[in-house]
Amino acid sequence: MKNAVKRRKIDYIWHFTKIENLDSILQNGLIPRATLEANNANMEFNDLYRLDGHTDASCLSIGHPNYKMFYRLRMEDREQEWAVVAVKRKALWRKDCAFCYENAASNEVTSIPLLNRKGVPAFERLFIPTEGKPDRATLGLPDNCPTNPQAEVLVFGVIEPNYISGAILPNKERENEYKAKYPNYEFLYHRAFYSARLDYQYW
Question: What's the pTM?
Fold first, then answer.
């Protein structure tokens, strides 16, 4: 897995979250919803239902956040601020991961046994062409970007703080605020992470 990830030049995997959760994530890591609920933690969840059925895992994206879901959530409450947490690529080979070539809650993905969504073959499936869509060259996708923009990685268990590099933030004010609070992390305002992927018209 390590070689497969490095060959595709993947540096980070991404998790978007409400800004109110960021301090806890930086201090305690990314903790699965099931654990948070069991401990009655005060967290703001993105998805009320988690139809993928794996509340014991956190949902992350490779290459670019799942902009379809991210856009919908941002439009539901335009006053809400969001952060996109950067998790180091080593999580892909050191953590228990399941790879979903499209949305983890889709019928096609949930029908695949969890064991068959793990390992290098499942990882490589993220990057094969999608039937009925243009090839990857036409889509303009780099090697480190899954074909389907809603492809997800389920990471089981806690992703400890040492796996987290920092976060992409929604404006320069937030960037400066978090740089001052957490000098050991990296923070950046980058508008592209709050926008659609460049091949959005095909999806």
Answer: 0.91
